[in-house]
């Protein structure tokens, strides 16, 4: 709701980042890729398909739950952006201030990074990064120690949040809100999935192996429901871009819930000979879904099919013998 979050919400951060050396800004433009949606969902899919029991007691359940948590995070962002509808900083608008020493190819990349349309609050990258890296740190609980996992997650999420301010596509308030929303979504998503660490007195699953108790269905469906709310808010306010984002969220939540119904949750890692063609096909579907965003129906259908394929893939080796 315009007025609750001001369009002029800077706290003096922009003069500071304007004084940074250009090489620092270019480096942070690369760091921001760590929370691009394509990167996060690719990372989560790889973990879901290939992780073994050295990372979690039930790696397929852990991986699917991480995907569901991040889907919830993006649904929350869609609601926030459609509801508050406040602009990004002036630096996100063209023309881009591209360093003259960058080669032509990198100049085009840098310009694409520092120019962003759409609304600015909360930051989708900060929210997605906090949710993804936080969920991975908690769910793959046999890797390293809890302290090292959480520290690595904090560094990754913090670096992404800082990068969004340094390249001037968000204010500090935007990324702070995003990180807080991401952390809250991790807790809520794991509670929905039945993680006994977030359900006091819940005896489901062995205490030493919390991932064995997970079922991401409720988290996927919650993401779809929240995205449906976001679509309603966006339609009422006339924000067509946010309607598309909400539609993708609905499709991802529904597709994840359907895909999870097709697996047992205890399958072994997916063979590479199956995973590589699946990655090509699902990647093409996702690219097509965004490329055809002018047609909401096609975008939703393509996204749903892609997500069903990603989540159901561990069951394919048994199905083909």
UniProtKB/TrEMBL annotation:
The keyword Transmembrane helix applies. CDD domains: PAP2_like. Keywords: Membrane, Transmembrane, Transmembrane helix. The chain crosses the membrane at residues 23-50, 62-84, 119-138, 173-193, 214-237, 243-263, 270-290, 296-316. SUPFAM superfamilies: Acid phosphatase/Vanadium-dependent haloperoxidase. Residues 65-190 form the Phosphatidic acid phosphatase type 2/haloperoxidase domain. It comes from the Archaea. PANTHER family: AT30094P, SPHINGOSINE-1-PHOSPHATE PHOSPHOHYDROLASE. This is Phosphatase PAP2 family protein. It comes from Halorubrum trueperi.
């Amino acid at each position: 709701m315009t007025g609750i979050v001001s369009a002029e919400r800077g706290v003096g951060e922009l003069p500071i980042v304007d004084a940074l050396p250009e090489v620092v800004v270019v480096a942070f433009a690369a760091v921001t890729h760590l929370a691009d949606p394509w990167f996060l969902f690719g990372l989560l899919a790889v973990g879901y398909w290939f992780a073994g029991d050295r990372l979690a007691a039930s790696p397929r359940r852990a991986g699917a739950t991480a995907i569901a948590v991040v889907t919830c995070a993006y649904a929350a962002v869609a609601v926030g952006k459609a509801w508050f509808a406040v602009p990004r900083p002036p630096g996100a608008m063209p023309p881009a201030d591209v360093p003259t020493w960058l080669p032509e190819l990198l100049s085009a990349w840098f310009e694409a990074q520092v120019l962003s349309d759409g609304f600015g609050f909360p930051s989708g990258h900060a929210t997605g990064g906090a949710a993804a890296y936080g969920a991975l740190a908690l769910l793959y609980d046999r890797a390293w120690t809890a302290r090292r996992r959480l520290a690595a997650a904090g560094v990754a999420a913090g670096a992404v949040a800082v990068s969004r301010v340094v390249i001037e596509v968000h204010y500090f308030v935007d990324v702070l809100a995003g990180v807080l929303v991401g952390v809250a979504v991790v807790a809520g998503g794991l509670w929905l999935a039945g993680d006994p660490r977030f359900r006091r007195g819940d005896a489901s699953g062995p205490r030493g192996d919390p991932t064995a108790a997970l079922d991401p269905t409720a988290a996927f469906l919650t993401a779809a429901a929240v995205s449906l709310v976001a679509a309603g808010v966006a339609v009422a306010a006339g924000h067509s871009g946010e309607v598309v984002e909400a539609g993708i969220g609905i499709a991802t939540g529904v597709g994840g819930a359907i895909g999870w119904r097709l697996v047992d949750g205890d399958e072994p890692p997916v063979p590479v000979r199956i995973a590589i063609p699946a990655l090509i096909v699902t990647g093409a579907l996702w690219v097509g879904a965004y490329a055809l965003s002018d047609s909401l129906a096609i975008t939703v259908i393509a996204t749903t099919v892609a997500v069903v394929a990603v989540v159901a893939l561990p069951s394919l080796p048994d199905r083909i013998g």
